[in-house]
Design a protein that fits this description.
Elements lengths: L6 E4 L4 E4 L2 E3 L11 E4 L13 E9 L5 E9 L7 E8 L6 E8 H4 E4 L3 E7 L9 E9 L5 E3 L1 E2 L6 E3 L8 H66 L1
Parallel strand pairs: 1-4, 5-13
Antiparallel strand pairs: 2-3, 5-6, 6-10, 7-8, 7-11, 9-10, 11-12, 11-14
């Protein structure tokens, strides 16, 4: 269509992903200046999609420097609507002690429409040894955050696994590494000290030798000059 003669589309705002199953997603790409949309769909402000979460997994990474998150679902198209929320909860009451949100686009490592992988680096909330809960949130039209929609039987929340507190063996390895470093530095320092002493002794010996040589040379010269003076007098 054109501005003076727009195309017309009559559509309702309901869509179905399969027989009898209503889906919130509305796939309409139209320029409202050249395409006149009538029906209940024309009353919608945003003709976009609603991400649906099927499952979420969160585990500590191999180096224990953060947590790896994997989300599976439908319509997980890359946009700023999806967020991850990490809550540090008390094991006794399961109440959140600290909460922090992360834009999924900022922490994602790979992304397609059915699966997203992300990495959240350890920080003031993501700490080893705490009970951490990760949730998927979606941004609404008024920019607030709410729990993301789930598929039938799906879940948008998970407890982080494999991010326990540092073990004694790990502390021992760290201490051993520090001890080895200290020993290495001490050895290097001792070698430098020995080399410095050797250089000092050599320099001292050379200096003393030079002084003795100069004194002997000076005495010989004086003796020779004294003999010549006596001969001249005679």
């Amino acid at each position: 269509g054109t501005t003076s003669s727009p195309a017309q589309l009559l559509a309702e705002s309901s869509s179905f992903s399969e027989a009898g199953v209503e889906n919130k997603n509305k796939w309409v790409l139209a320029d409202r200046d050249t395409c006149k949309i009538t029906g209940s769909l024309g009353q919608e402000n945003i003709l976009l999609f609603a991400p649906q979460i099927q499952s979420i997994k969160a585990t500590g990474n191999t180096d224990k420097t953060g947590i790896d998150v994997v989300i599976e679902g439908k319509s997980l198209f890359k946009c700023s609507k999806l967020n991850l929320q990490v809550s540090s909860v008390s094991q006794q009451t399961m109440n959140a002690d600290a909460v922090k949100q992360y834009k999924l686009a900022d922490v994602a490592t790979s992304w397609d429409d059915t699966q997203v992988s992300a990495f959240i680096k350890a920080d003031e909330v993501v700490k080893r040894g705490l009970t951490l809960v990760v949730s998927v949130l979606v941004q609404t039209a008024d920019n607030s955050l709410q729990d993301a929609e789930t598929t039938s039987g799906g879940s948008n929340t998970v407890v982080v696994r494999g991010f326990e507190a540092e073990k004694e063996s790990e502390k021992g390895e760290t201490a051993t590494g520090i001890g080895k470093l200290i020993k290495t530095l001490m050895t290097i320092g001792l070698v430098i000290l020995i080399v410095s002493l050797v250089v000092f002794v050599v320099v001292a010996l050379v200096t003393v030798g030079c002084i003795i040589y100069r004194r002997k040379h000076s005495s010989s010269s004086e003796t020779r000059l004294g003999g010549e003076s006596v001969e001249n007098r005679e």
